[in-house]
Amino acid sequence: MEKSPALAALSALANETRLDILRLLVPAGARGLAAGEIASTLGASASRLSFHLATMEEAGLVRARREGRYQRYSVDFAQLGGLIAYLTNDCCRGHPAVCACIAEGIAGGAGAARPAPAIRAARQDRER
Amino acid sequence: MEKSPALAALSALANETRLDILRLLVPAGARGLAAGEIASTLGASASRLSFHLATMEEAGLVRARREGRYQRYSVDFAQLGGLIAYLTNDCCRGHPAVCACIAEGIAGGAGAARPAPAIRAARQDRER
DNA sequence: TCCACTATTCAAGAGTTCTTGAAATGAAAC
DNA sequence: GTTTCATTTCAAGAACTCTTGAATAGTGGA
Fold it and tell me: Which end of chain B, N or C, is more open, meaning fewer C-beta atoms within 10 Å of its C-beta?
């Protein structure tokens, strides 16, 4: 990822409502959620949600797709992964301390029920 | 990392000048750089730099330490790693697609000369 | 066709962030 | 002690972001 889209993605995430939207959309996977479902879950007005979803779509973090009278939004996982890769790699140049912290956080087990391959490998490496 | 410091860190990174500061400070490691060095490298005024460095320090991304008449700033790698771990793990719940993208970016070799253990492990996992 | 439903756009206003240059602070050198 | 250098603080203004509510635009069902 280049600097400018990374900056757009960071700006898009630097907002509580939008971070909440992301956290809601991630478990919804490729199917995503309708704008209205997101709005009611977060207790936000339709126009407010629309504003934030447009910001996230502009930044490439989510995609919209019409399904009947619903507009479904889903996370663009490639873009999200690209942002994290940019931070880890291009920005922090794979600094050992940063990578150790990532592995640490993963081993702490805050989130994933079934960690992805890269995560499992990192954990094994740490425990060796 | 909790949501609120993560949000502060994301806001701190969501600005071109501050992203430039980070990219400058990362290779400088623990020693860091004096405020004036950063300012002259980026071609920004002292007061402007001071504003952005204060924002980053507030967010926990950098630390300041006086050395004679110079104020040296260095990256808090633990905090930075914590942010990336938050995004990867707590926020994206270790989603396979996201992790694959991170590994992809790393394998592309944009940055690190000597990848950290977690990174090496991820790469090996991918190539298996 | 008309109505109900879902979502976006628009304009106004409040709030926040960023930049600028001048003044103040802090630390070393003379 | 005065001067010089490095940095921060302050106040003002410009620019941007966010929220609100009303108006508009699509879509499907009666």
Answer: C
